[in-house]
């Protein structure tokens, strides 16, 4: 199966709002109902940030030319030398086939440097996935911290260093 990341911009964003709504619906099981509703209502504004800021990137995850998911990547506002996966979603149909793993490998190839992946503490399946893939990407050199009450943070650096620094 051929896995690709296709960068999208405002002009080619058509499938993203629907995928984002699917993502929010799935995340409802891990979020406070009020937070889930807020995310759902603010979906357009959240996505709009990706078309207005040069330090944000939106990608479709493609599997054999079919849309398998998306990734929203940004420079982390509190650590401007660090890339942050803001949202990452592989549709149910394409899960457990290694697609998310290949997508992360491609992301870090495109954006080498310091990385942060934030995972809701209530989403243990996502944390297991990220730790497995990050172990491969970082040769096991990562830190897992509880930087916030509701989040686990996975931090690592890719082998080729490049700053995400915002000037």
Quick take:
With 167 residues, the protein is α+β, with helices and mostly antiparallel strands. The chain has helices at 15-27, 33-41, 43-52, 99-110, 124-138; strands at 3-8, 56-63, 66-75, 82-90, 114-120, 142-148, 151-157. Strand 3 (66-75) and strand 4 form a beta hairpin.
Give a verbal description of the structure:
Helix 4 links the parallel strand 4 and strand 5. This protein has a single domain, classed as Gcn5-related N-acetyltransferase (GNAT) (Aminopeptidase, 3-Layer(aba) Sandwich). The protein is built from 5 helices and 7 strands. 35% of the residues lie in helices and 32% in strands. With 167 residues, the protein is of the alpha+beta class. A 7-stranded mixed β-sheet has the order 1-2-3-4-5-7-6, with helices on both faces.
The structural class is: alpha+beta
Tally the structural domains: 1
Could you name the CATH homologous superfamily? Gcn5-related N-acetyltransferase (GNAT)
Strand order in the sheet with the most strands: 1-2-3-4-5-7-6
- The pLDDT mean sits at 84
Listing every helix as H and every strand as E from the N terminus to the C terminus, the arrangement reads EHHHEEEHEHEE
CATH architecture: 3-Layer(aba) Sandwich
- Strand coverage percent: 25-35%
CATH topology: Aminopeptidase
The biggest beta sheet, please? 7 strands, mixed
Q: Please, how many helices?
A: 5
Total number of strands: 7
Shape assignment: globular
Low-confidence region ranges? 161-167
Q: Report the top-level CATH class.
A: Alpha Beta
Helix coverage percent of residues?
A: 25-40%
Radius of gyration: 15 Å
Distance between the termini: 39 Å
């Amino acid at each position: 199966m051929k896995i690709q990341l296709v960068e999208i911009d405002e002009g080619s964003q058509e499938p993203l709002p629907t995928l984002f709504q699917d993502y929010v619906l799935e995340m409802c099981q891990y979020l406070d109902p009020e937070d889930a509703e807020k995310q759902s209502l603010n979906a357009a504004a959240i996505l709009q940030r990706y078309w207005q800021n040069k330090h944000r990137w939106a990608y479709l995850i493609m599997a054999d030319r079919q849309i398998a998911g998306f990734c929203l990547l940004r420079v982390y506002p509190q650590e401007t030398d660090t890339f942050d996966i803001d949202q990452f979603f592989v549709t149910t149909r394409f899960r457990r086939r290694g697609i998310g793993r290949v997508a992360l490998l491609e992301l870090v190839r495109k954006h080498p440097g310091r990385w942060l992946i934030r995972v809701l503490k209530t989403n243990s399946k996502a944390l297991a996935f990220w730790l497995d893939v990050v172990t491969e990407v970082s040769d096991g050199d990562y830190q897992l911290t509880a930087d916030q009450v509701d989040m686990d943070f996975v931090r690592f650096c890719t082998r080729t260093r490049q700053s995400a620094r915002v000037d």
